[in-house]
Amino acid sequence: VDRVICPLASREEEAHIGTVLTSLTDKSWFPIPGTKQAYHCRIRRLWPCEVVDIPGHQTHVCEVRIPAVSHVPRSGRSYSKSLYLRLPETLKRDYAALIQSYVDSKWWVEAPPTLATPTPPAQIFLVPPSSQARKSRLVIDFRELNKALPRAGAGGESPMLFHVLGLLRTESRETTLLCDCRSAFYKVRLVDLILTLESALGSFLSSRMGFGILFGPCGLN
């Protein structure tokens, strides 16, 4: 679950933030760079019935519209459970806890057992920590689905880190938005595509842009 540290803004700052969001909001879709107009995106206001990622603070959402995907026959095998069974008990607990964190964030929902989906389920497995200073992490194998999706680049040239730091220091603005990569991907909502995820502990559905999906990097652009 996200922890939010939000400073109190003055009226002038609140007005500026509102101006920024208004300028970003567009009722129409526009093509994402690097995708040959196959993928489109927009920023819009939240609907009253939608899941809110940051209660009390969030007012807008980012969406990526996916072109129609024809039925993709499943060609690979399910291997998430076999990999899970090889894990020691401590890592099995990590696996379950990480999956639960996605469910608690409402990024994944349990799939009905009889649900038929047009896309093959992506396999979920655990990568153990390489050292005590690191944590276990989940990896989602989207390779089968990625084969059926239109190509997508990174959405333009990625700036070097020193360029970003230099711009922050010399061209700082009134508002700076920061978020970690995991949260950034899952904050983006998908239109016209539901992801099917298969774990050793059950299957899930997601309407969020999972890390590892083909259009992920350009979707963050």
TrEMBL record:
Query: SUPFAM superfamilies, from UniProt?
Result: DNA/RNA polymerases (SSF56672)
Record-given protein name: Uncharacterized protein
